Amino acid sequence: MSKTKASVGRPRSFDENEALRKALDVFWEKGYDGTSLSDLTEAMGINKPSLYATFGNKDQLFLKAIEMYENRPCQFFYPALEEKTVESVAQKILYGAAASFTDRSHPQGCVIVQGALSCSETAAQVKEALMNKRKEGEIKLRERLECAQSHGDLPSDANTAALARYIGTVIQGMAVQANNGATEQELIEVADLALKAIPAHE
């Protein structure tokens, strides 16, 4: 019995979610390539063996951090797809982006957009994962637009694929602008211009 008890490892002496949140902030601020293991261990308050044992390598840690980023309570994109009209869907997405990307409680911009832009060829797996996440969002938005079109909330001749791509492009541009210091109001002005491009329903 004592042998069995002795074989059980000691519990980790740190909060995994808190450590992961701190890793997310570092990746968000410095980008994937700009973040070193030393940056991560210092911010997370753990050593390298603990990092590897708990989260895996840097790629795996980054992807876990991205999952946390997407599941935050203030995440705006997917909840916006539940809005009743295309106009309110687009407005909630674009205004949500303006508010989230400029929120001073965390680094500015979007970690998914900035992470993909800063990834080198050596981080091909991470870059592909981020691209797939953006594509997934675009597909979900296009499907929502197609549903709206079938119910007369978009003109029958509206190009739903191009419209979904357009909104995604605006969001990515807003993320870059926020990272460069744009304010929420400045991004709302961009959002208002983008909303004028949404075709009126029939």
Shape, per Cα inertia axes: elongated
Mean pLDDT: 87
Rg (C-alpha, Å) = 20 Å
Q: How many strands?
A: 0
What is the ordering of alpha helices and beta strands?
A: HHHHHHHHHHH
The tally of helices reads 11
pLDDT below 50 for ≥5 consecutive residues: which ranges? 1-11
Estimate percent helicity: 55-70%
Q: In angstroms, what separates the terminal alpha carbons?
A: 75 Å
What percent strand? under 5%
What does the largest sheet look like?
A: none
Structural class: mainly alpha
Task: Walk me through the structure.
This protein has helices at 2-7, 16-34, 37-44, 48-55, 58-70, 77-80, 86-101, 111-118, 124-150, 160-179, 184-195. With 202 residues, the protein is mostly helical. Helix 10 (160-179) runs antiparallel to helix 11 (184-195). The N and C termini lie far apart (75 Å).
